[in-house]
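Box 3.1 A note on notation
Throughout this textbook, protein chains are presented in two layers. The first layer is the amino acid sequence; the second is a token string describing backbone geometry. Keep the layers aligned when reading.
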Amino acid sequence: MAIKQIFISQTNAVVPCYKLRQIVIGYYTAEEQAPCHRSKTLWQTALFAACTPVARADGTSQTKASHAVIASNGTINVHGLSEEEIRHSVEQLTATPWYKQLSRWDTSLCPLIVGLPEPFKGIVFDHIQRTATMVMGTRPKHCTKNNAIIAVTQDGTQTFDEIYKRMPALGQGFDSLGYFKSDQTTPDKYDVSLLREPRPVRWYRGVTTDLADGVVGRMINLSNGRRVASIVSYGDRGILTQKDTISRTSSLILIVDLPRAAGPTWGQLADYIAFVTLASPGLGETFSRTSIMSLFNGGHFQSTAPTRLTNFDIAMLKSLYKADNDVEAHDEQAQIAHDVTHALARQE
């Protein structure tokens, strides 16, 4: 298959950029030219046509990269935030209706990055893995069931439309135990309209409902062929606000529109992607400048945004993953805001 070339202006280097057909359909990694031993799933099938570079009218490829330098590691400290400001940011960064629960990954998080050559694919992957390990602790060294798909393309809206046409549920229901009908609910029209709007990065996460610790359930087959969940034994937690279910992030589709995402370093972009992957920020929100999520406020690159994850971002992610996950969203957000406030105060 043909190999395209992209020009990286900072390094004056030519880096091979392989068509996604090799990665997705041919079961070969672009860099190693060796079998991945990865079984084809609905994810790869849906992403195949969607992520190939858009051709110009003259038939040539439109593939090119934004300015690229790798940011160094380090921490940006944020001081002086009030608890009200922190609570507002937490609500934006864990966007969930008040009547639902916050969701987060378990150790099954397994990213697949398509559309980038090395070393840039490795940068994004390493940032996701490093951040996930920081907030989750020890994680498996290898994973085989890809559930977080990061697609880097030349036209994010076209990519989304292709994925949506092939996979209208956008991953919702993936890895569900089947206890709750809500797991199979497809994205509503408002979500789809947000995802179709031109923007540097867009994302949609699938959420699965599991039984909380200490709760035992079973499935009942009805005469009409339907199956419903029944709680057999409730947990004895003694707090009325706690629920019998927990929400778990089970899939993610994240699309980077490369021309619209031009401007940040690869380290900045990788930290942004890592944060979106692990949290659940609201799509289209205007985020506080104390967070890496302000990188694309207003739908374009913000040169004043942090160059990497800030201490606020890190405290926010750590608090999200240690918070009580079987209470209502607003109760959990209040707990996270309280923990973040105290974490930042200890650093001042």
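The beta strands are 3-8, 13-18, 103-104, 111-114, 148-153, 201-211, 216-221, 227-233, 245-257. The chain has one domain: 3-52+79-347.
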